[in-house]
Amino acid sequence: MKKSIVIRWAAAAAVSAASLVALPSGPASAAAGGVVINEVYLNGGSSGASYTNKFVELYNPSTDPVDLSGWSVQYKAATSTTITATNIAELGDRTIQPGGTLLVKGASNGAGGQPLPAFDVESTINPSGSAGGVVALARSTSALDSASPTAMLADTDLVDLVGYGTGDTFEKTAEPAGGYGLTASLARAAGGIDTDDNAADFAPLSPPTPLACGEACALDDTPADPVVKTIAEVQGTGTTSPLVGTNVTVEGVVTASYASGGFDGAYIQTEGTGDVDIAGHTASDGVFVSSAAFAKNVTTGDFVSVTGIVSESFGLTQIATPTGGWSVIDGQQHDPVEPATVTFPLTTAQRESLEGMLLDVRGTYTVTNNYTTDRFGDIGLVDGTKPLDSPTNVVSPGAEAAALQASNQARLITLDDGADVDRFTADKDVDLPWLTKDNQVRVGDTATVTEPVVLDFRRSLWRLQPTGRMVAGQETATFSGSRPARPVDVGGGVKIGTFNVLNYFTLTGEAYDAQPGTTCEFFRDRAGTPIAVDDCGPGPRGAATDASLARQQAKIVTAINRLGADVVSLEEVENSATLGRPRDTALSALVEALNAEAGAGTWAFVPSPAQVPTGEDVIRTAFIYQPAAVQTVGAPKILVGSSAFDNAREPLAQAFKVAGGSGASTFAVIVNHFKSKSPGSGLDADQKDGQSGSNASRKAQATALVSFADTFAQDAGTDRLFLTGDFNSYDKEDPVDIIEKAGFVNITAQKTDKETYQFEGQVGSLDHVFASPAAYSDVTGADVWNINAYESPGREYSRYNYNSVDLFDGTTPFRASDHDPEIIGFDAEQGESTSTAIDTRRSIRDGEDLTVKVSVTGDGTTPTGPVTVSDDGRVLASGELTAGAATLTVRGLGIGTHELTVAYAGDATHASSSASATTTVLRAVAGLTASVTPGTYGRGALLTVTGAPGAAGVVYVEAGGQLVGMGLMSAGTATISLSSTLPVGTTPLTVHYAGSQSFDPTSTTTSVTVGKAATVTRKIAIKPSTIVRGRTKPFVTVSVKGSGFVVDGGTVTVRAGGRTSTGTVRDGKARVRLGTFSTSGPRKKVTVTYAGNAVAEGSSTSFTVKVRRR
């Protein structure tokens, strides 16, 4: 079962490699736990490797045995702030003796090398052997706090730690990259010396020397005799099983089996279960049986008996059954398992009560996370029609953001593929499920689950597993959605775009690696061909080869040419000057490629300023523009000498005007790329308020930008100024607030509800276009073109040929980057002023159309052209002016108060103008009616409630002030089973509808007629069984049963041997003593008659007894 989830703040950005700073050593020393990390081998399975698998060896240098029960070995990537479940290796019930070692077997990069000679613990831990990382020993199986290096070193569960390469957490000094490799491990000095200095304590060791402990470390795990339990008793009603460690025997029907793919087990469920009332269901009837042999030898539908030890594996209740611990029960009839019908979201308690059970998932859902679909085969879903919001994109940092983060976590449910396989390292030649060129599975797509699935909990998430390992073409869900071929029309005479092009480098990794004194690590495709740079130190970060660069460039070129902008600010372009080439080399190459497609002279770039900062980053910002539409005014300027940008790219400014236009059309643009959200130290540490790391730097950068913008606007002689780029800050975060308080308007936040970035299944905008007040008054529209963030990363050039399914399409712009481009339109030329007026109703009911009357007047001639009605930037209706007026119809306004804005875009001689009015949409009237079918006591009656079409929500029923029934209305109808103990007769009922977001609460009345229940009287026993004539006065025990309740009260009359005896029914039974029989015989008749009571009808039975003479 699932237990608490640590809510980790995450927002997103491209994380640049930061220089490592030595931190004070924490509690990680041998004295802390008596055990140290002794050897780490990082390249298992690679071509030329010594061993097929990676490993971590522990050593006990103390003089006492150390109990490792509840301990784990953990790994996090170099600068990651999370430790995933697959990178936690539980050490189990083991003791490491003085001077002893224990070997943890890890994942593999492939088939290279020899098998490990022996190991003690098998795991999926997968430390990187390229850039670097952090391996830790913990006295807990929960993930260490890795939100920052300081937090990890301060975690009280930390026993020992080694940071290597570019790992950001280490003892005193990180072990430098190099030395360890295919045939060399990182090994501690002899004797387990631990000086809390990784560089001093560890050195390369060739060849590696893995040494397992074997039986010397194993505790006596002979299980006690098994106890027979139901699966529900094993699961219990809490967050963990009450029987952990107990040897149990259970019976169930196999509902899902995973003979391959890493699950190594199957699900079983109690026969005849599944049709549950989720409101009252408290304990799951399904459980995971952990045994690869079991999974390989059973079939879905088998009725089995399983004996094994109950445990919790990372939050999932399971029974580990040994060889011979299970059997298929042949020849015994059993009731089939039915999928439980559910609709998410469900509460944690409800999910717990269904863990391991077969489900029929109803409803439609929205894809909110596809980031690891091409790697792990999972897809995050959420109820409703919108992906989950990054909290600080919509609410303030702090408590509000924490509450939304918790809500997001509670709503998330993940579709999975029934396997625990990292397709970056395994099964590369097996077709991926879910993704094809035609089945995009984009964030925001509608998902419908079409096959029964099992609810389980793995890798810290609730997941819907298929009933066997999924193969391509046999998926359990379908998806529908559409890709935007182009941005929406934003209007205006000039269009400005901004685009983070994700490390566009024309110097490839292979070319850099070929230079003397340089070295690179690469991400490689399934054939081993380098595709993208993993780490080239201070060198390039983009394509590995010319072929990869061509694929990357093709998508970027297509995206920019289809964006439709006249000016585009770019981020993450190669700063060629840092690589020994002219600064504009890569930028010039991009423009050349753009013109090759769009036509010679279509695009030009703004050359680098005469003065640039020293010590610039390897990536930079830039401007490109279309000379036919605009021309530059004056020279570009970059901010020089500001310490605020010591860890980021300095703002770059350029003024433009309409091509051939007057000076009145001048406007200025400043492109930005603030510090990423990677954690720093001190004020730049993650403050746990939802804004992630380095927020202090971004605030300082926002302040410096505002000052630089003011100076540049004055120098350019214009008050129309746009700030563009990747600010690495969501809409409600401090840096955006600083810019807005300086008077700038966040155009895309005001005029569109789309987002530019996806991170960990949540969407928000890190990229923005801000406008000064004078510029904003001329803005005509904005759009975020969702071509990248909503797409699977598997479609990037950097994932080319990672799998046998070809996802790359170089003819489209989709997944050209990880950020979405933005575009805004505005009128650079000023015209005759206008005035717009709006006339509309103050309130309507939900579902009604709203009529909006618009009139526009000018100083002279009558204005013409389009007008729009929008709500918080979302266009609701549009039309053309006729004689300066238009009548627009708005449909689908949501419930609540709306400030509607009517905007006139202007025409050739008239400037734009706008006006606003407030309209409130009230909830609709549900119009409730109810009818009841007569019922009988103990079985209840069915109440049918009908409301307006589309009404949904809770319906509850009262009788005499008592709750007698409750249910959910869906699509305007609800069927409710009333209480089975309503009194016999006619009872008045009041039916209440609690309302919803769309409908007001209401109620109605009806009545229900309940009749007496039929009963069945049966003999239970007659004692003594030997009856002698004239001597024995036997007792007769009978049962009186009613359907759905226990009969209590009423007289039972027994007639036997000419005599009559009576008794009273209590708790469904009556015991009556008979008189003696006056005659003997083999079949003396006994008649039992139940007279009934206030709620039950009478019934009778008869039977015979043998009466002996003596």
TrEMBL record:
Domain LTD, residue spans: 23-184
Pfam families named among the record's database cross-references: Big_3_5, Exo_endo_phos, LTD
Coiled coil spans: none
NCBIfam families xrefs: ExeM_NucH_DNase (NF033681)
InterPro entries noted in UniProt: Big_3_5 (IPR032109), Endo/exonu/phosph_ase_sf (IPR036691), Endo/exonuclease/phosphatase (IPR005135), ExeM-like (IPR047971), Ig-like_fold (IPR013783), Lamin_tail_dom (IPR001322), Lamin_tail_dom_sf (IPR036415)
An annotated Gene Ontology molecular function: ligase activity
Keywords for the protein's UniProt record, in alphabetical order: Ligase, Signal
Organism: Aeromicrobium endophyticum
Protein name: Glutamate--cysteine ligase
An example Gene Ontology biological process: carbohydrate metabolic process
CDD domains in the record: MnuA_DNase1-like, YhcR_OBF_like
Record's signal peptide: 1-30
Keyword Signal: yes
